[in-house]
Design goal:
Number of domains: 3
Largest sheet: 5 strands, antiparallel
Structural class: alpha+beta
Number of helices: 12
Strand order of the largest sheet: 1-2-3-4-5
Radius of gyration: 21 Å
Strand content: 15-25%
CATH architecture of the largest domain: 3-Layer(aba) Sandwich
Distance between the termini: 66 Å
């Protein structure tokens, strides 16, 4: 016997191609998959949705993976991202409407709010607006547990005490505390956010399968942690880039959130020198090469900053501030040496 929620999820999976045609119309079917650029319905071949297979378990119909971002989920996740609906009951109502099913009638229940219209205020903007500054919150506790004390001063970072979370295969969402990061574009708009779900006491990430997830349009954009000037330091993770600010306060740093997005960051006009803070893995190396080639073509000088361990937060926690500062001093150009002394 299935719950009503499980029944809706099964019905969506059985009609996976119809869901994709309705919510990801820029894509097309290729064999057993629906291929499209991303969850924002951009043309491309990064995201693929399985159209056939069992109703659950490995190879289940309706599961998607974005090869560029690593995001994965099911058809309810696709409907949520495409409609901007944040409340789970409203999301189920949208799914029922797509399936042509009647809505349940609850005695003395208030009339449900209409689902957010496409083209309305994006879900990412609403989530960031509903969050609060980091200082003094569980997000601050989490960052300090990673040796990072500057997060509370940055407007790009906020905290939400009850950010909805649902792992792949789960039928219900649950509210969890989360660090919310604003993903902004070159015009100052907020096309997306990044969520890091936290443990109840803030001492680490939540004990869930998917601890991080992006929402909105990330390609080309970044979490602009500090304002850029003639130079800019770009890397992958938020914690990685905050580690550099920890030892060089005021350093202009952006977090691209993944290796694939690092290679695609849109660089600001007037930039003279670019530092790429890589992670020590093949994907990070390849992303740095792509970004470096684009910067050099634009006449921007490039240097690569390489950690001793996996990333610069690993270095900070293992060796401390002074050791990381000395390690950076060996890699940055003479024009920036004064920043290490400030």
């Amino acid at each position: 016997m299935y719950s009503e929620t499980e029944d809706v999820i099964r019905a969506l999976a059985e009609n996976a191609e119809g869901v994709c045609r309705a919510y990801l119309p820029a894509g097309r079917r290729e064999g057993s998959y629906w291929i499209v650029g991303d969850l924002q319905n951009n043309p491309g071949r990064s995201l693929f949705v399985r159209l056939t297979g069992p109703v659950s378990g490995p190879g289940a119909a309706g599961k998607f993976t974005d090869g560029a971002t690593g995001e994965h989920g099911d058809l309810l996740d696709i409907i949520r991202e495409r409609t901007g609906i944040s409340r789970f009951p409203d999301l189920l109502a949208e799914a029922r409407a797509h399936l042509g099913r009647p809505q349940p009638v609850l005695p003395n229940a208030p009339r449900p709010r209409k689902a957010a219209a496409r083209g309305g205020i994006p879900a990412a903007v609403r989530l960031f607006a509903a969050s609060v500054p980091v200082a003094g919150t569980l997000a601050d506790t989490y960052l300090r547990s990673r040796g990072l004390t500057q997060g509370g001063t940055m407007s790009a970072l906020r905290f939400h005490p009850k950010c909805w979370h649902r792992d792949e295969g789960q039928t219900r969402s649950s509210p969890r505390p989360a660090l919310i990061a604003a993903v902004t574009d070159e015009a100052g708009g907020l096309p997306g956010v990044h969520r890091t779900w936290l443990a109840p006491d803030g001492q680490g990430k939540a004990a869930v399968e998917t601890q991080r997830r992006a929402m909105g349009h990330l390609l080309g954009n970044a979490v602009r942690l500090t304002p850029h000037d003639a130079i800019l330091v770009v890397g992958e993770g938020i914690e990685t880039m905050l580690s550099l600010v920890e030892v060089v306060p005021g350093l202009p740093v952006w977090a691209a959130l993944s290796s694939s997005h690092l290679g695609a960051v849109v660089l600001p006009e007037g930039l003279q020198r670019l530092y790429i803070a890589i992670d020590r893995d093949p994907a990070g190396q390849r992303a740095a090469e792509r970004l470096s080639a684009r910067a050099l073509d634009a006449g921007i000088a490039v240097r690569v900053l390489e950690p001793r361990l996996g990333d610069f937060n690993d270095d900070l926690r293992a060796y401390g501030k002074e050791a990381l500062r000395q390690h950076l001093a060996c890699q940055i150009g003479p024009e920036e040496r004064h920043r290490l002394l400030g």
